[in-house]
Amino acid sequence: MTLCGIYQIRNTVNGHQYIGQSVDLALRWSQHKWDMRHAGNHNPHLWAAWQKYGEAAFIFEALAVLAQPVTKRELTDLEQDYVDFFRPAYNIRRECVESQRGTRRSAEDCAKMSAARRGKPGHIQTPDAIAKAAAANRGKKRTPAQRARMSEADKGRRLSGEHRAKIGDAIRGKRRSSETRARMSAGQRRRAPPSPETRAKISAALKGRPLSSETRAKMSAAWRDKPWTAARRNASRRAHGD
Predict the structure, then answer these.
(1) Residues 65-80: pLDDT tens digits?
(2) Structural domain contains residue 111
(3) How far is CA 227 from each of CA 48, 216, 224, rounded to the nearest angstrom?
(4) Which residues pair with 142 in a beta bridge?
(5) How many distinct structural domains can be found in the chain?
(6) SS (H, E, C) 23-40
(7) In whole angstroms, how far apart are CA 178 and each of 49, 56, 154, 187, 237?
(8) Among 80, 91, 79, 94, which Cα is nearest to 9's?
């Protein structure tokens, strides 16, 4: 029989506790233990105490068991009553919500979580799982609002040299289909031309960079048989100092 309700994870050494809610109390305790053992828990207070005192110091206790069916709102209201009464030391916040979405953690908490996970393997997906996820997302159209959020999240993000090298190794030698090339070309044509400031930055970044003989051959082949427009002639004259 599945039991739902309010639970606490209590430290038997100092009496500190974490209070939460679940529609399946037994499963939730199993999830907590797995998270703690594999550095997957998102609560830095409970995580630090678990590492300090050990798993044997903690016990799981049901504070209130509710009869099914029960709504999420009812669970959250009851959880709030227990949090207000016990004021548990391991809860990140005192206000109970129906979802973790929107929770903002302090820079100190983020640093502790990062330090706890550093050097530990992350979640590794199987090739089958990766293929299924790719198939599910293939051809999916994102709304303008989603695109705007993704763009804002990436704005100002700097990739390390190691990260750039990994990306380069992953795409080097990859052959794109004619359909993919056509989509990329169409996307580039729709983009607004770079501003003078952007052009100047690109020029400064490329200035003095030596090109390999292979790269020069590829560039020469790409331009071969292309018509000499006025813009191309002017660019060639500037490049040769004419």
Answers:
(1) 988 788 888 889 999 9
(2) yes
(3) 67, 19, 9
(4) none
(5) 1
(6) CCHHHHHHHHHHHHHCCC
(7) 56, 60, 29, 14, 34
(8) 91
Say if residue 69 is preceded by a cis peptide, omega within 30 of 0.
Answer: yes
Token duo for residue 167: 């990306």
- Asked if residue 98 is part of any domain, the answer here is yes
Q: Helix/strand/coil (H, E, C) string of 160-204?
A: CHHHHHHHHHHHCCCCCCHHHHHHHHHHHHHCCCCCHHHHHHHHH
Rg (CA), the chain: 28
- Residue 62 burial (C-beta neighbours within 10 Å; 0-12, 13-18, 19+): middle
CB 4 within 8 A of CB 65: yes
User: DSSP for 139-163?
Assistant: TPPPPHHHHHHHHHHHTT----HHH
The C-alpha atoms of residue 12 and residue 56 are separated, in whole angstroms, by 9
CATH code for the domain of 15:
3.40.1440.10
Angstrom distance (rounded) from CA 189 to CA 30: 53
Q: What are the CB-based long-range contacts (under 8 Å, 24+) for 124-128?
A: none
Give the 3-state secondary structure of residue 72: helix
Matching residue, tokens 């999830």: 31
Q: Is residue 206 part of a domain?
A: no
Query: Residue 162: inside a domain, yes or no?
Result: no
Each residue's pLDDT tens digit, 93-129: 888 865 544 455 567 767 776 776 666 555 555 677 6
